Amino acid sequence: MERRHDHTPPRCPAAPPADPTPCQGPHDAVTIVDRHGREVAGCVHHCARLLAGLEGARVHPFVPAGSAMDVYLRARELPPFAWEIGK
């Protein structure tokens, strides 16, 4: 039986499967809440990318202010689904 050893680090739950970018920081740094109330925790990088593409989404109110601001500022600079255009 052949074994395959994948040495890529695990990704946070907020990282879309089609987004090839690596996580940045803890995988539970921020929680995003969509307009239906569903929550997903993730790194600051992927939460910002997720926030940029979800209409009506927001950062959970109990996230530390510094992390929340970082996500909002990053998301502001991104188009929705940034990985589709190589950003």
Can I get a quick summary?
This protein is of the alpha+beta class. The chain has 2 helices and 3 strands, in the order E-E-H-E-H. It has a 3-stranded antiparallel beta sheet, covered by helices on one side.
Task: Give a structural overview.
By secondary structure, the chain is an alpha+beta fold. It is built from 2 helices and 3 strands. It has helices at residues 44-53, 65-76; strands at residues 30-33, 39-42, 58-59. The chain has a 3-stranded antiparallel beta sheet, covered by helices on one side. Strand 1 and strand 2 (39-42) form a beta hairpin. The N and C termini lie far apart (39 Å). The mean pLDDT is 87.
What is the first-to-last residue Cα distance? 39 Å
Radius of gyration: 14 Å
The secondary structure category is alpha+beta
Strand content: 5-15%
Helix run count: 2
Low-confidence stretches: none
The SSE order reads EEHEH
Note the main sheet: 3 strands, antiparallel
Shape: globular
Whole-number average pLDDT?
87
Sequence of strands across the biggest β-sheet: 2-1-3
Number of strands: 3
Quaternary form: single chain
* Helix content bin: 25-40%
Q: Which key terms come to mind for this protein?
A:
87 residues; alpha+beta; 2 helices; 3 strands; globular
